Amino acid sequence: MMKPQHSMSGHGGRRSPFLTSYALTLAFITFVSVLYFKDFSSMLHQPFLSRPPPHRRQISRPRPHGSRGNNQAAVSGELPPFAVGHAPAGCDIGQGEWVYDEAARPWYAEEECPYIQPQLTCQAHGRPDTAYRHWRWQPRGCSLQSFNATLMLEMLRDKRMLFVGDSLNRGQYVSLVCLLHRIIPESSKSMETFDSLTIFRAKNYNATIEFYWAPFLAESNSDDAVVHRVADRIVRGTAIEKHARFWKGADILVFNTYLWWMTGQNMKIMQGSFEDKSKDIVEMETEEAYGMVLNAVVKWVENNMNPANSRVFFVTMSPTHTRSKDWGDDSDGNCYNQTTPIRELSYWGPGTSKGLMRVIGEVFSTSKIPIGVVNITQLSEYRKDAHTQIYKKQWNPLTPEQIANPKSYADCTHWCLPGLQDTWNELLYSKLFFP
């Protein structure tokens, strides 16, 4: 502001310069105030500093009966619970090829994860080769989202994630624990087993990742988590209540069931209870019985899972490699001593049932609540090299005949860790967070 000037003598009739200066200053301040008020008023109608509005997770609504259950994101582009983005349009992460990549795989070392069962620790049991750990799955025309343990644990904060199924689902469960546990302080994590239920706790996230043993999903005579090798497998129809009471309250459910259905014979289905003195058992075609149980699971999901805050997945069949002639090797071998994947992209082993795969698609497509199908079958068909073979804990002493012929006792069903099942979890990660 200008300093006021004294009035000059001899000009008593002129206005005081002080008053003139004061009036001009006041007028200038008034003009600037009006101008800035208009700008400020305009700012109130714009995002502050162009900041986007806070993100609010969009919840997918239940679909009408008969809609595609494995399409997790609605056509409108809404994100289901836990999702943080969308997969690239037209990207089928189940179709692709294996790329050898020592720099990127494995995600962890076998000795770094104390949670791997001795049935899966191939290096500790003398496997001489390591190449099976270095293969990375590359989808055709797109890429898998990079697994981010920090993101996943944050999204699981205060949540319960539950795997339900057989030993192959347990292998995937342990793989996920191995992928996550490294960033959790030693004092803030634990794993405990209570009969059929195993619980890994990430205490600083108030989160649990759990596995529940139920090889048929429905009640059966193979439900003991330790002693379950029975020659005559019997499933108690659609009775899932015994198991399902442990599923309630889960925020994320990951089901599987397949291996135990592959008896080569009709399935025995019990109409009553295992406690009944007179047992009513009928035989059903495997596909019919399999569909019956999966429909019971779908009904339970529809009645007990809320699509506004939970997600449900089903992992498809895990293949076996028990006969080398199936992939063009006439040596009369199996998975034993196999060190490279199958290169024929159209390969589908005869031990993997396309009929049961069809049933999976038919049943889950009718669910009123989205059930994401994690298709691990085709990519696993190529991995004849990734099985535990003979490099695992043997529960029974080997006979001289077995020792003389290692392929005779090679395990061509289960998989070494680290290894193939880490890729299964990469697919699950993509389906969960980027559907």
Automatic annotation (TrEMBL):
One matching Pfam family, short form? Answer: PMR5N
Record keyword Secreted present: no
Quote a single Gene Ontology cellular component term.
Answer: Golgi membrane
Region Disordered, annotated ranges:
49-77
Coiled-coil annotated spans: none
Compositionally biased intervals (Basic residues) = 53-66
**What's the family?**
Belongs to the PC-esterase family. TBL subfamily.
What name is this protein filed under?
Trichome birefringence-like N-terminal domain-containing protein
Which organism's genome codes for this protein? Zizania palustris
